[in-house]
Amino acid sequence: MIPIIKWAGGKRKLSPTIASYLASDYKGYYEPFAGGAAVLFYLEPKNAVCFDINKELINFYNTIKEFPQELANELETNFYPKHSKDFYYEVRGWDRRDDFASIPAIKRAPRFAYLNKCCYNGLWRENNAGQNNVPWGYHNSPAFITREQIAQVSNYFVSKNVRFVLEDYKGVLKVAKRGDLVYFD
Asked: How far apart (Å, rounded) are the C-alpha atoms in residues 11 and 39?
């Protein structure tokens, strides 16, 4: 499988090389810095737990796992058809609203996906106030995430027991045991 989003420092091209150095006889897989999860997608391990401190990233992955059809519907109905520079900045500005924290996860996840695919170089960056501040990427025809990709990733997450946890890298120290693989990037 390939990562469904781009992430700064992503290991999409390096995943085969990284994997060649990793043990293959592990019980559980832990990734303390989820990001684009390129190594996770390359290895496709069972019983994986990925951590990150980025709320929107973890919400996105959990929404794919729990509500794939709803996510695909939201993207296809309320985001992709409206694609433009003005719409990008409107959507990016949602996190500047007072009610942003009350926006349901199923509405924030497609926002994350849309911004990731349309921003400059697939970068996700936030200012000190936690607001996305990446400029428009000048994409006339972005490679939007498809319904089929969402379904494939959701199926993997569910069938292989992949979990995403909103916690910093130290969270892995609470759960990893001897015999587990921890990929610190």
From this structure: 7
Nearest-5° Cα angle at 57, 158 to 26? 50
CA distance 41 to 101: 30
CA distance 47 to 28: 5
What does each C-alpha distance from 157 to 90, 110, 132 come to in angstroms? 31, 18, 27
Tell me how far apart the alpha carbons of residues 144 and 136 are, in angstroms, rounded to a whole number. 15
Report angle CA 144, 62, 185 to the nearest 5 degrees: 85
Residue with tokens 């400059």: 120
Q: What is the pLDDT along the chain (185 residues), one digit of tens a residue?
A: 999 998 888 888 999 999 999 988 999 999 999 999 999 999 999 999 999 999 999 999 999 999 999 999 999 999 999 999 999 999 999 999 999 989 999 999 999 999 999 999 878 899 999 899 999 998 888 999 999 999 999 999 999 999 999 999 999 999 999 999 999 88
List helix spans (H) across 14-146: 15-20, 38-43, 55-66, 68-74, 85-92, 105-118
